[in-house]
């Protein structure tokens, strides 16, 4: 299999509902998000997908939707209070925003939507919360 990879850095807040330690508090990370793309065949030039298209379709999606925002699980008990304080900074997501769930959402929901007009497929995503800690999600 031939793959193409590109990463993008964003700053984003979150809290992990049910976390036993300090990750239950409102906090944020300088996330580094790695995208892995494949295609059934290379294009006539010899590419999985031009890197600029990965940027415009996936990296810029992160920039517009997650960067400098706060990811909030739709079932978080603090949601209503935070919506009253600063609604425009919140991104209400259908998952508890762990690195694992962010990676899964990007691969299962964002990738298919954003790459629908291409011949490529997002097959894996790695979400780094720090240079030491990351989670990945992959499909075949
Ligand atoms: Zn965190």
From TrEMBL:
It comes from the Bacteria. It is an enzyme of class 4 (lyase). Its EC number is 4.1.2.50. GO terms for molecular function: 6-carboxytetrahydropterin synthase activity; metal ion binding. Keywords: Lyase, Metal-binding, Zinc. Its cofactor is Zn(2+). SUPFAM superfamilies: Tetrahydrobiopterin biosynthesis enzymes-like (SSF55620). It catalyses: 7,8-dihydroneopterin 3'-triphosphate + H2O = 6-carboxy-5,6,7,8-tetrahydropterin + triphosphate + acetaldehyde + 2 H(+). InterPro entries: 6-PTP_synth/QueD, 6-PTP_synth/QueD_sf. Pathway: Purine metabolism; 7-cyano-7-deazaguanine biosynthesis. PANTHER family: 6-PYRUVOYL TETRAHYDROBIOPTERIN SYNTHASE (PTHR12589:SF7), PYRUVOYL TETRAHYDROBIOPTERIN SYNTHASE (PTHR12589). Belongs to the PTPS family. QueD subfamily. This is 6-carboxy-5,6,7,8-tetrahydropterin synthase. It comes from Sphingobacterium alkalisoli.
């Amino acid at each position: 299999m031939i793959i193409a990879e590109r990463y993008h850095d964003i700053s984003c807040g979150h809290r992990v509902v049910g976390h036993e330690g300090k990750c239950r508090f409102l906090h944020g990370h300088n996330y580094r998000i790695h995208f892995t793309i494949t295609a059934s065949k290379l294009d006539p030039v010899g590419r999985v997908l031009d890197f600029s298209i990965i940027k415009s379709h996936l990296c810029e999606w992160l920039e517009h939707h997650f960067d400098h925002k706060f990811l909030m699980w739709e079932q978080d008990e603090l949601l209503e209070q935070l919506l009253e304080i600063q609604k425009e900074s919140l991104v209400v997501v259908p998952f508890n925003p762990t690195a694992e769930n962010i990676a899964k959402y990007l691969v299962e929901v964002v990738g298919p939507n954003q790459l629908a007009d291409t011949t490529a497929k997002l097959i894996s995503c790695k979400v780094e919360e720090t240079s030491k800690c990351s989670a990945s999600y992959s499909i075949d």
